[in-house]
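Training component of the fellowship. As part of building independent skills, the fellow (R.M.) carried out the full modelling exercise for a liganded target. The chosen ligand was beta-D-glucopyranose. The inputs are recorded below so that the supervisory panel can assess the work.
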Amino acid sequence: MNNKVITLSMVTVSIFIISCNNAKQEKDHSDPTIASKRYSGNPITHAFDMEIDSLIDQMTLEEKSGMLHGTSMFTTAGIERLGVPELKMADGPLGVREEISRDSWAPAGLDNDFATYFPAGGGLSATWNTELAYKFGNSVGEESRARNKDVLLSPAINIIRTPLGGRTYEYFSEDPFLNKKLTVPFIVALQNNDVAACVKHYAANNQETNRDFVDVQIDERTLREIYLPAFKAAVTEAKAFSMMGAYNKFRGEYLCENSHMLNNVLRDEWGFEGIVISDWNAVHTSVNSLESGLDIEMGTPKPFNEFFLADPLIDSVKAGKISKTEIDTHVKRIMQLMYTLKSMGGEDRAKGSINTEAHFKDAYDIASESVVLLKNNKNLLPINTASIKTVAVIGANATKKNALGGFGAGVKTKREVTPLEGLKNRLPESIKINYAEGYLERYAPKKEGVFGDVTQERAETIDVLDPKMLEEAITAAKNSDVAIIFAGSNRDYETEASDRADLELPFAQGELIEKVLEANPNTIVVMIAGAPFDISHIKEKSSALIWSWFNGSEGGNALADVILGNVNPSGKLPWTMPKSINDSPAHATNSFPGDKIVSYDEGILVGYRWFDTKNIAPLYPFGYGLSYTTFDIKNARSEKDDAYMENETIYISVDIENTGNMDGKEVLQLYTTKKDSKVDRAAKELKGFEKVFVSKGQKTTVTFAIPVKELAYYDVKNKEWTVEPGTYNFKIGNSSRAIASEVSITIN
Ligand code: BGC
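Fellow's submitted model of the complex:
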């Protein structure tokens, strides 16, 4: 594979571990290997521009137009006589989607389109591990090439504004820093495989309700500080080759024809050189969309020649409403991408590989670091297999598969290890499993409603238990030494195209869990879900609580390894779990979901920024997650006593000791607070994190390297990022609410 080099430089926020077992400080930062690790992407090639110009000269208007719109569900037209291939795309964030028919959403029915199912966004982000983001990107890039794709419609990186968002499971985080730090290595690794990332959905696409027309209003500072950083890093750091224009409007203009967002911000400000591909059926005009910066229109089935960039565009050119030069600009960008990806032939293009054990191993590694231990009061976990003979496994989620499901893109996979299978794989044969389904996943028939083309009516669940199944579950729990309930949701319930109505657990699972806990107090509750639920009651009643995700092909094995202690849990919540939905910022400000317009009234106070600033206690805070061992974090210190200048990098060291009985990984999180700021600030902002392995009884020193520029706020009046001089507190801990040690720094 070419270009698979991770460049090291002194630029980004990260850490280095100086020494084990002592806290001696290494002073020499000139050695690049102890500076922060940076992933930097490959730019679009311009080496073939003259060849491209000559090819464009030979194209007819019809041929050019064919390259600008879908001529099947996931391809644009090629031009055979000129050796120009189709541009082949595939979803998506969970792995390479199965092949879809050329002219409808029906699966193509092939037997060679299986792929590895990777953990959904929530799972990856809960690892807080940038190396795993890189692994994910690389593996899915190899799989994309093995399926002969040019563009993978991934990653999906919109900020999680509300816990109710239908795509919360697919997105990474409520925090822009965590979001960008995972996005960059993912894209770099993916694109090293001669396949383009299509970063979606640009931008401000934070709800499914009315997504095909809602007009999002966000003040400029909030846009820059919260909703754009990961998109910007995708362009400026990872050099993403394509972006997907979102369905919604932003400040009155659809995102696929929003010249400010596409031409001014994306291209002029950030230097984007790739192509903008529309979301499927997100285009509304011919001339305006192209002139506003869109390059390719994709869509849902209708005759492909009726697409805005098909016959209507050809008519517009003939009528003199749009210039040929404008058309050529877009065709040239697409051709440049094709040469960059080596899809024009000639050069040795990455061939990839698919469904390999190495890829399943990557999916396993991600899953095993993503599981979040929420509660373990009586040390029920990890289960000591030597002391039990029977285990009750209860709940439909013990056997539910999530590679496919709901409205959105999934993966057709030959391997999806369920939690029950995982336990069977890992438990000694001598231990008997008493399985009971416990509850049924049931939905009311859909009502006829008036919805947009791409917005769906949400699924109404049937929330009553079947008395016989309840009885079976209670009996299984009573007759077992330990019970494990696998509850939560699934990808039919949490789905693209609709948001959830509330945080309630569906299918009367709350009642089931309560009854099982009464029957056997040695019950471990495992939630499998991509988004927060109201689990206050469960938190109160149970002594052992685990959170897992739609966690990929190896999800069940990884979960069993955590439950049995083969893996020490190290996942951390990538979003805040509220006690009540009304505590969440978009809901507390009554600004979700809007109607034709949605105004983000909470401003910069998204996620924990709101909870921590307003002093609202969450059920579980951002960054939270326990371990089977304990860590002592102390002695945060700055390397120098003097003030820092704007172009400097701040080095902050902290000691961490594993004070328990098991080796483990901890995620050190660094938050900053600006004292006496002249602008409104959140009480805390994440500015650094690192996952570190510490053997039991050992101590390590971690040093964060934070460029002073990372402390800037967006100054709307002067349209620039500004570092305010003065005192900042740097707080290090293992959740936004568990700060163990802090240090003050002065910036001049
Ligand atoms: C989704 C995109 C997806 C596209 C193609 C749209 O409905 O919003 O994320 O890539 O469909 O499947």
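The panel noted the following from the submitted structure. The longest strand covers residues 664-674. The CA atoms of residues 117 and 320 lie 48 Å apart.
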